[in-house]
Every structure is written in structure tokens, then in C-alpha cells.
Amino acid sequence: MNMNDIIYKKREGGALDPEEIEYFVNGYTNGSIPDYQAAALLMAIFFRKMSREETYALTKAMKNSGDVVDLSEIAGIKVDKHSTGGVGDKTTLIVGPLAAACGVPIAKMSGRGLGFTGGTVDKMESIPGFRTTMEANEFISLVNRVGLSVIGQTAHIAPADKKLYSLRDVTSTVDNLSLITSSIMSKKLASGSDVIVLDVKCGSGAFMERFEDACELGELMVEIGKADGKRTIAIITDMSQPLGLAVGNSLEVIEAIETLKGRGPKDITELSLRLASYMIYAGEKASSPEEGYQMASEALENGTALLKLTEFITGQGGDPKVIEDYTLFPRPSCFSEIHSEVGGFVGTIEARAIGLASQHSGAGRATKEDLIDLSAGIMLYKKVGDFIKKGDLLATVYGNDQARVDKGAQEAAAAFLIQNSKPEENDLVKRVLQ
Ligand code: URA
User: Are 14 and 83 contained in the same domain?
Assistant: First the structure.
């Protein structure tokens, strides 16, 4: 077998055999296949596409390129939740405690933010003392003791994806159905949970802007999850505006805490309850998603989910006093306010533009090596559909470098579209695939 023939076959629209796909994945991971040949194949896949069988073979080869985690020492049905990436998406910090408070063990590996989307690991690191790396035995014993642990993904999980994702990022080959599916599912299938609940984002702040494309991605991931023996559910959710009101690491953790105190924005509260309901149901702690929703609502109302968050933070070395005292989070020294120049209804808040503005204010990284400012980000005061008067405060951008904050504010201001008529409301949960 040789790489040139494999590239040629795909370039001409042929279907690759599992052996050819495995040869490519293993060779690229161990360095025997160079970047230029891998890049050529990625571009051929981008244009010629892959069948479901090829996508499954690619996912399987990528999953097996590193460790496959064994979580059998954790009692019960372990449930993982994964978001395809959005702006202001802090749901892991809410649904983790909600589902764990209802008895579902959560042993989760999360990523860092890149580009306009944030990552849970960065968010958690804004809690003083919080550790996102630990040995496997400590991770497992935390889940057994607390019911919930979230750590950064180790370099040994799906190393093929680590290399391929970096290459896709610089060769304009990210937004391909098969490549996204294999990237996400290889990591999820290697991470060891029994059930995978996928939050597939759809809209201007997501990889998949069109509903049909998001459904196709969800369906393919569910099919591949099941083919690998994992119960997999995909929930297609709206990402046409940022989720909640906070964007940026410490700001989002504070909003997650507020949500678990019952004071969160409506959209983030509702989405968290819906995701948790499927996690509780698929984790067999409820006989239906509706019962799961009821249980999650009770855990929110009676404070057991907030207590679970406290235990989770303490277990990972973080200072639990942050729950009552938000001044313990990294603090910004600069800010810039955005006021509306006109009156009317908020018609659009471009999620991607807000994500980029937050990144440019210091909250995100353009390359994996960039350092980030955990205090930076954006607080929104209005959502789509709100009526505003001229001069109303729309958002505040925070950070520690006034020039960057001002640039972020300029970009964030352009993300708002104010119109005369009230826009139609978008469904938060658009479809559930299982
Ligand atoms: N998230 C991933 O992990 N991979 C992709 O390709 C897209 C989103």
C-alpha cells in the first residue's frame, strides 16, 4: 500500500477500504506519512466526500490510534456529554452537577477553546486552584466519591485527531461532515463512557449553520456511536445567538453558578435542563426524558446540584468559596460599554462575531500556543427579541488591555442588528435524534 495511490483513489472519487484508511491514520500519527500527503488526502476527502462506511472506518482507526480508557472501575452507567462548539456554551458546568445530583456518574474529558469557541478546561481553570490534569486513578476515584469529574483530554486519547485537527485548521478542511464526525466521535468513543449525549449546535455561531446539515451531522454521529456499541443521542440546538449572557472564561463560570442558584438566563437554564434530562434518562435513572427533566428541575430547585458543584470544585483542588464570592475570580482592569445608537427590537446577535470579539479582547486564542486572559470577555444585557431604546446598554467588554478591549467592543457592537419589528423566536431544542 502506498499513500500516493490512496490520495489518487480519493481524488478520483473512489471509496477507501478500511485497510487504506487505517494505513493513512497510523502512518500520519507515527510520522511516516508527511503533512503534505495528509493535507492532499484531506482536501480530496473534502471535495469527494466519504461514505458512511468510510467515515466509520476513519473514526475507528482514529479512536484506536491511542488509549481507549477503561472506566469499568466506576459503578453505574457512565454518561458523557459533548457540544460541537458554540459561543457562551457553559452547559457542561451546569449539566454535570445536575445529572450527577440525580445519580448519573459523569467522567468527562473536555477540551480548550480555539478561535471563536470557548472550551470547558479554560473555563474551569479560572477557578483558583482548580486542577484539570490528574492521574487516571484519582479521576476514577473522584467520580466514585463525588459522582463527577472533568479533566483535560490527555495526549494519549485519539492522538491522530490531535494531529489531523491541527492540519485541518490550517488547510481549510475543518467543515466536512466526515472529518468533523470522525474527530468528535473518535475522542468520545476512546473516552470510555457508556452513553454519549451530543449537543449539536446549529446556527451562525456553529460549524453547521443550516438545520439540515446539523441533522445530517447528528444522524451520522448517532449511527457511528451505535455501531461502536455506545448508546448515542444527538440533540440539535440553536446557536444563532450566544447562549446565556456571559461569554469569556470566568464570566461564564459565574453564570453557571448563578444558573445552579436558580438565577440563570432563561435559555441556558432551559437547555441545561433538557440536556440533563436525556443524560438522566439514558443513564437509566429515569424512565423517560420527561421524568429526567422533572428530576433535574428538582435538583436545581432544592440546591442539590449546587452542592454537587461545590463538591466537584473542592474535589479538583479548587476554592469552593468562589460560589459565594465572585471577587475571587480573575478580575479585569479595563472595560468598554456598548450603547445602542437606535431604538427598536434586537433582531440578531451574531454569535460568531461575539465569539471573535471576546477572543480579541483576550478571552480566546488564535493558535494553540496563545496565552489567554481568564478575566476577559463580554457581558450581554439584551437577547434577540428584546425591545430597546436609543442609548440602552447592550453589552460590556472586559479585559486587561484597553486597546484590545476597545477593538473587541467595536466588533461586538457590529454583531447587533436592531430592527423595527419583533423577530420570530427560534426553538432552542430543534430535534432529538436517537
Ligand atoms: N470539534 C471537534 O472536536 N472536531 C471537529 O472537527 C469539530 C468540532
Answer: no
